[in-house]
Write a structure and sequence with these properties.
Length: 97
């Protein structure tokens, strides 16, 4: 699913125009990114949590040459779905089997 698909679905469900919906979706994405760049934790109850995690430096491996490769420490954006979100997704996929 692309951003355009999300905009289409939200526009159909809300009655907003696609232009208005696109502005809202892009505004949400920009706000989340900026907040995470500032180190903020974003909690959307019933949906999940966006936060930034620190990854320590480590030694990896080049799969082509099998040589060790140093991987620097870094900060990564992480999304953790809520328990209800995970259960709903699991239930839907279990029903499809």
């Amino acid at each position: 699913m692309t951003k355009a698909d999300i905009v289409d679905r939200i526009a159909e469900g809300t009655g907003l125009t696609k232009v208005e919906t696109k502005a809202v979706v892009e505004g949400f994405m920009t706000t989340v990114q900026q907040a995470m760049e500032e180190g903020e934790r974003i909690e959307l109850r019933g949906f999940g949590v966006f936060e930034v995690e620190h990854r320590a430096p480590r030694t990896g491996r080049n799969p082509q040459t099998n040589e060790p490769v140093h991987i620097e420490d870094r900060y990564e954006p992480v999304f953790r779905p809520s328990r209800q979100f995970r259960e709903d997704v699991d239930e839907t996929h279990q029903a499809d089997e």
